[in-house]
Amino acid sequence: MACNSSGCESGGCYGREKENGCKVVDVKETVRLCVKCKSNEPMTFGDGGSDDGRFCAECFRSNVYGKFRLAVTSHAMITPSDNVLVAFSGGSSSRVALQFVHELQVKALKNYEASRDRSLPVFGVGVAFVDESAAYPSLSGGMSDAIELVRSTVLSLSPPEKDLHVVTIESVFGSESVEARDRLVKLLDSVSDETGKEDLLLHLKMLSLQKVASENGYNRLVVGSCTSRLASHVLTATVKGRGYSLSADIQHVDARWKVPIVLPLRDCVWQEITRLCHLDGLKTVELARHPQSGINDLVSSFVALLQEENPSRECTIVRTAAKLTPFYFNKIPETDDSCVPMATQRRLKKFNLKYDGSMTTEAFCPICNGPLNGSDSSEDESDALYAACCSSCRFQILPQEPSSLDHFGSLLPHHMISQVKHHQKFDSQTYLREKIKDCLLLDDEEAV
Amino acid sequence: MEASEGKSKKQGASRLCCLCNQRRPVLKRPKTLQQICKECFYEVFEEEIHQVIVKNGLFKSGERVAIGASGGKDSTVLAYVLSELNRRHSYGLDLFLLSIDEGITGYRDDSLETVKRNELQYGLPLQILSYKDLYGWTMDDIVKMIGLKNNCTFCGVFRRQALDRGAALLKVDKLVTGHNADDIAETVLLNILRGDIARLSRCTSITTGEDGPIPRCKPFKYTYEKEIVIYPFITESFSCSFSNIYIHTYAYFKKLDYFSTECIYSPNAYRGFAREFIKDLERLRPRAILDIIKSGEDFRIATTTKMPEQGTCERCGYISSQKWCKACVLLDGLNRGLPKMGIGRARGGVNGDHQKETKKPASAARSLESKQCGSLDF
């Protein structure tokens, strides 16, 4: 799934040169040819990676783009009536995602302008950048340059024009004021576990992206996660006891959220992405993080070590995890189809690419939004927040002393806490009354 | 009880054991980082294992149970603790020691001496089976033939069968092994890394092989390796000079008689990667080991996932999902001078096409990690 056939750039196919599209090595000539098109000279990236010097620039490029396009079409990620927000961090992966989405849009525009009846609209694209300097003060130095680069990149990617939304991470609290900033700092300080802090920030980042998306009318969020990142995620999730919810995070589509997340680069490896950036001169900015000493970092180093030993390890890890059963929300949800072109509707139905939204059987952790395993819940917990969270968040994010839980809850963004109220042990009387109150004639005060 | 005061070399004299609040703590418990005294440590160590046994219904009264005994720390502690609990809680079990001699000079012959001593120390009857008798090959012979790359595959596959054969000889109902939490966590990781979803779904089960020749269980499933190392250190009665030291490094100490050397052929095992990683992980977050096991238990793996079909080996009658069991395939390869047979993907050979006779070792991928390899099986 992740890497197959001749498309695999990172194949650990040491002994298989003979099988994979005969490498034309003419003893007399020293010129090698691209293994795919057999006509152009292969690119050499000289980055010490695998499969260097096998494909020419065009074939390499079309290979990577092909994987992107296949993911998009086979999972109905982007359809003509959609309005897509691309999460752009400035890094290579999201840069490639942005580039490919742009190219897809350009093609759609071309088709639109060329078609007579103009039946298929062109999907809209916006870009979002989250400024995390409130959480990582060391970033603030390079932040304005980074934002400048992002701005100029987005400007260069038109037509079609794209809106850029630059938000700070503290915007999850409803504003970008100093109070919000302080609240963020206080919240992070109350998390004692290093890894818990990093993970909480990731959840907050996703919340801020969701906020941008829903407030600006986007109905898809494109995230540039590649195979390599997912491989690390598989291991970090395993190591944190999140085996149950793992399969929800690594699929092509994640529709748990108000604005469904799609991962069109899921089948591309990091090496391909960096090579592509190099090949096409795509400018990226890597904001230097402060040294991370938690579990996430340990896992990344471990995966890097494994990759050295076997370049196809990342693919194998993701392929294994892909065999886990996904959730019902790992498909684009059924929505009001009135604005979707008939042709698209037919195709989506035919390939069973959507799920029926009424099947909401999972409860989710308010902090990480992970589906909760039945065995995790403890009904008799006195604190609603504690009871509502998954065991991993309970350990690494929530404060250990029960007395601090209330205060911690007050620091969390409203969106997280509002979910907790639903989990509280409800008073069945109140619940029933809610259900029938339209029929009641008596005043609430007098009702039994 | 309370060790003599006035001999404290370290500070922190005001601290008391977290659990009993009476005695002075002598160590930080690896699983929970609690500071506890030695009595509480072995109490909680033994009690947790007892709870695991009871909660998972591992044994029934009157059962004959063989303990896979290598002479190493896990199986020695297992033998000791199990016979203790059997007595203390009246499990009503008939316990035996079963040891496998792989024929590794300088390693196994020494560890076997330990098991023989255990037999006397714990009063448990001992049965030893050797690879030489069962298969006609010792590990020394095998390594001479194939080198140090895939030797663990051979040893693991042969040992599994040998344990089953031994158990049948002893006429036991169940086999217990000393696999600890670290082992199981490593296995979960390895199976993810190698893409083995079928094994991934089975490897966290505390009891396996219930529908096979002999069920085997792992009472140490939630027991940390570090604690198994400390246990013999702690259990023996102390002189007071030990009681005041906070133990942060865990020295091997032969209070309980056990053999503490690594297998001499093991340095190149792939499992080493996972082991190093888990050690680093434990340093950051001790409970991560249990979290890995929890993840393994919680993975959503469809029961309709293609599981190997269970049959029997044509050659020896042992349980097998292929025509020949892995041990027979490997043996055949050894006997025919084709040691790569059975390693890597099957191309031709018995379990592939019968007609294709390979004159050279199969051009399969050499790595240990390919799909059909039965290495490090649990």
From TrEMBL, chain A:
Belongs to the CTU2/NCS2 family. Pathway: tRNA modification; 5-methoxycarbonylmethyl-2-thiouridine-tRNA biosynthesis. It comes from Brassica rapa subsp. trilocularis. It is found in: Cytoplasm. Transmembrane segments: none annotated. This is Cytoplasmic tRNA 2-thiolation protein 2. The gene is A01p002180.1_BraROA. Keywords: Cytoplasm, tRNA processing. Plays a central role in 2-thiolation of mcm(5)S(2)U at tRNA wobble positions of tRNA(Lys), tRNA(Glu) and tRNA(Gln). May act by forming a heterodimer with NCS6/CTU1 that ligates sulfur from thiocarboxylated URM1 onto the uridine of tRNAs at wobble position.
Automatic annotation (TrEMBL), chain B:
Pathway: tRNA modification; 5-methoxycarbonylmethyl-2-thiouridine-tRNA biosynthesis. InterPro entries: CTU1-like_ATP-bd, CTU1_C, Ncs6/Tuc1/Ctu1, Rossmann-like_a/b/a_fold, TilS/TtcA_N, tRNA_thiolation_TtcA_Ctu1, UPF0021_CS. Its EC number is 2.7.7.-. Keywords: Cytoplasm, RNA-binding, Transferase, tRNA processing, tRNA-binding. Residues 345-378 are annotated as: Disordered. Residues 65-224 form the tRNA(Ile)-lysidine/2-thiocytidine synthase N-terminal domain. It is found in: Cytoplasm. Residues 311-341 form the Cytoplasmic tRNA 2-thiolation protein 1 C-terminal domain. The keyword Ligase does not apply. The keyword Iron-sulfur does not apply. Its main location: cytoplasm. PANTHER family: ATPASES OF THE PP SUPERFAMILY-RELATED (PTHR11807), CYTOPLASMIC TRNA 2-THIOLATION PROTEIN 1 (PTHR11807:SF12). Plays a central role in 2-thiolation of mcm(5)S(2)U at tRNA wobble positions of tRNA(Lys), tRNA(Glu) and tRNA(Gln). Directly binds tRNAs and probably acts by catalyzing adenylation of tRNAs, an intermediate required for 2-thiolation. It is unclear whether it acts as a sulfurtransferase that transfers sulfur from thiocarboxylated URM1 onto the uridine of tRNAs at wobble position. Belongs to the TtcA family. CTU1/NCS6/ATPBD3 subfamily. This is Cytoplasmic tRNA 2-thiolation protein 1.
